[in-house]
Structures are given as C-alpha cells and as structure tokens.
Amino acid sequence: MAGTVSTPLPPPDRFRLPFLWPLLPSRGSRCGIGTSGTQPHDRLADTVRILANPEGVNRLPDAARATGHLETTLRTMMIGYRHCGPAGAHAALAPTPTPSNALEQARTAIRASRVLSLGNIDIIDGTLTDTTAGIELRPGPDGRWFPFTSFNNEEWRPAPGCSANPAEAYQAARRARAARPAAR
C-alpha cells in the first residue's frame, strides 16, 4: 500500500524462545519452511538441531530427560545432524530398514569400487560393515547412505559425505578415517 510505513517488529524475548521451540517444526512444516520432502524433520530431529547450535549443548541434560535418549546418543545424533541434517541425525540413531537385495547391491557396488580388498563387507543389523577398515554405512530415511567410522573400536561416529551412491559414501568414510589420528 502506498504511503504505509511499516514498523519493525521488536526482537523476540530470549526467555520466551525455549517455550516456542516445540511449536517450530509443526508450524514451519505447515508453512512450508524449514523442511523438505526428503528430510525426516520431526520433533527429535528438531531437538537435535537446537542442540547442535553452540548454545544448545548446554541443554543436553534437559533434552536427554525430555527425549528418553542418553546424552551420548544425542551427542552422536548432533554430529550426524551437523554432517547431513535431520536424516543424518536419524541415521546416527539407527539405520533405516532396507530390503536385503538393496543391501546386497550396495555391497557389490562398494566391492567394485575398492582398489584393495583386505576385509569383508558384512551386512550386520541392516548396515554394511567393514570391520578391517573401521567403516560402517547406514541406509538413511532419505535414501542416502551415511558413513560412520569406528571410534576406539567401541562405537560408530558419523562422518561427512553421505551420498545416494554407497561407493561414494564408503570413500567418504575412508577419507574421514584416514584424517583421524591413529590414537583416537
């Protein structure tokens, strides 16, 4: 409208923001913002998104109580979120159920892409695992493969480089593994 001067809205009250967080995923998806059809953006992923911000890590104990997940699990999901968004967080929690023929095809593609095959690629609980190389690939809820590397031979940590191509995700995990100091 001509001649109308809009006044800027005041900044949000920082003490009210935590109370608005539960509303953001549902309202954002209804408005078509902050989500996409391929990203599993739900309350858990949004909680991890908030935790992945520098100030969010202070809310980790509260988030653990609210979600029922251990703080270590939420930290791993935060790493997954930082690498690949909501789908990365969900892949860090658990692999997406995938038909065995799709897992076999992915294993065949990875074997064909490797220059040197020192270890087997096993299908374990819906993941592709190369224990010799310390690499695991998990199918995600968005159809991509998410790379993980072994940490202290006790747990799997998300690595950057998710891809729709399992061989590319495997190579990303190899690069991440090579970049990590041997003592870790």
Describe what you observe in this structure.
The model is unreliable at 4-17 and 22-38 (pLDDT under 50). The radius of gyration is 20 Å and the shape is globular. The chain has a five-stranded antiparallel sheet. It folds into two domains: 39-93, no CATH class; 100-179. A hairpin with a 3-residue loop joins β4 and β5 (155-158). With 184 residues, it is an alpha+beta fold. The chain has helices spanning 17-20, 24-31, 43-51, 60-67, 71-93, 100-113, 166-179, and strands spanning 122-124, 127-130, 135-139, 145-151, 155-158. The longest helix is centred in the middle third of the chain and has 23 residues, at 71-93.
Give me the secondary-structure topology.
Layout: H1 17-20, H2 24-31, H3 43-51, H4 60-67, H5 71-93, H6 100-113, E1 122-124, E2 127-130, E3 135-139, E4 145-151, E5 155-158, H7 166-179
Please give the share of residues in helix: 40-55%
The biggest sheet amounts to: 5 strands, antiparallel
Question: Which structural class best describes the helix and strand composition?
Answer: alpha+beta
Mean pLDDT: 81
Strand content: 5-15%
Give the overall shape, derived from the CA principal axes.
Answer: globular
Q: What count of domains describes the coordinates? A: 2
Gyration radius (Cα, Å) is 20 Å
Distance between the termini: 62 Å
Number of discrete helical segments = 7
Number of extended strands: 5
